[in-house]
């Protein structure tokens, strides 16, 4: 038999996710598909948007499907304005458990800071329930019920990107009561998980982690990261002066008593 012709496209999968990471060095969850069946049939599907400061700031938009998270990297982030067509690059599927991941990736692929910027449930719009077919056809209409993002949206694949896999999509808000011209990434920049900003996430972790080889050095991203590192170092509670129950720092100097020689 002649070799089978390669099929036209291959979307990035969980295997690609695992291949890019060393889980000994990364706090990110290792990738296996969600093993629990979509129980009771009626559990709602989740979505999340992770704000990710790596070599560049971007927003990872993820929709649960078949036990994994379909993923697109959106450089400018979602917009509530239906006139905005936000570039969304399809990237490898992520494990289901990744949706809650917030923290610092010290090195390697995606090194930087990850924030859970929005989270909630999603559902395909009528006519798009067959998500696999919608992905092949390059158009998926859906509804979001998150904290920041709600209502009807579409992801549509472009035809002009030159990638054989057709990785280039656009994320667009449909006109409805949840649309508007507020700049949501500026108006609501913080985490829906910890309610803090990047510096808070870094302060909880290791603010000094990138004393050498930072994920971003030059340009606007490098400047942003430098400021965040500085800010985090200031917010990091000192280990030598732990907070007491009333929230005040305990005194580090105590008077010597007469007992001491
Ligand atoms: Mn990312």
Topology:
Elements: H1 14-19, E1 45-53, E2 57-65, E3 68-74, E4 86-95, E5 103-105, E6 112-124, H2 131-137, E7 139-145, E8 150-157, E9 168-173, H3 184-187, H4 198-204, H5 219-235
Antiparallel strand pairs: 1-2, 1-6, 2-3, 3-4, 4-9, 5-6, 6-7, 7-8, 8-9
Bound molecules: manganese (II) ion.
Structure description:
- This protein has one domain.
- The N terminus and C terminus are likely disordered.
- The radius of gyration is 22 Å and the shape is globular.
- Helix 4 crosses helix 5.
- A hairpin with a 4-residue loop joins strand 7 and strand 8.
- Strands 1-2-3-4-9-8-7-6 form an eight-stranded antiparallel beta barrel.
- It is an alpha+beta fold.
- Manganese (II) ion binds next to strand 2.
Q: What is the tally of helical segments?
A: 5
Would you tell me the overall average pLDDT?
84
Q: Indicate the overall shape.
A: globular
Percent strand? 25-35%
- Class inferred from helices and paired strands: alpha+beta
Order of helices and strands: HEEEEEEHEEEHHH
Number of domains: 1
Question: Which runs of at least 5 residues are low in confidence (pLDDT < 50)?
Answer: 1-8, 239-261
**Order of strands across the main sheet:** 1-2-3-4-9-8-7-6
Largest sheet, if any?
A: 8 strands, antiparallel, barrel
**Helix content, binned percent:** 10-25%
Radius of gyration: 22 Å
Please give the number of β-strands: 9
